[in-house]
Amino acid sequence: MAAPVRLALGPTAFPPGPLSGAWWPRSDDLKAELPALAAVFDPHPGRITRIATTRDAWSTTSHDLPVQGHTVRARWVIPGCDPYTIRLFSYAVARWDLLVIPHGTAADTAGRLMSAASDPANRLTAGALVAAEQERLPVGGPQERPTVPAGYGRAWRSTRPHIDAYCRHSGPVT
After folding, report:
1. What pLDDT was estimated at residue 157?
2. CA neighbor of 84 nearest in space, from 111, 107, 53
3. What pLDDT is stored for residue 129 in this prediction?
4. Alpha helix positions (H), 16-160
5. Are 21 and 98 in contact (CB under 8 A)?
6. What are phi and psi of 103, to 5 degrees?
7. H-run or E-run covering 125
8. What is the pTM of this model?
9. CA distances from 25 to 22, 50, 84, 164, 167 (A)
């Protein structure tokens, strides 16, 4: 029996916040983790057909990720985008933006991040929530703090406005 998916989704809210919830994968292998996440959405509230995320967050960087019954197409966005976000696309519902909690994060920290990301009153982006959690925690061992893999947070400018719109939010959304 597969382990339960560690996922928290907020209620559909209007106006929508920057996040739909949070996902806490058990590893950085997206090819291994995505099938369980996709199964939560299939068939209700909608089959995941595409994702967009930063390549640096995952050890698997294929463009086609097999899940049960179909293939999910991955779009790898460039460094500089929020490294803690995965965007899930569905034909039926449009999309969900999830905070991706690093797999090595302590359970109590992950719980706080999942609660905050799924709160309909939240107006912080994924990166801003993680930064706030890092500031909240006392300096301790690496297991107590969400960590940023090498290469995250590099300055970046794009000549493609549609990508800038996805990457530009790094603080509170008002």
Report:
1. 31
2. 53
3. 93
4. 30-41, 107-118, 126-136
5. yes
6. -60, -25
7. none
8. 0.75
9. 10, 18, 12, 27, 22
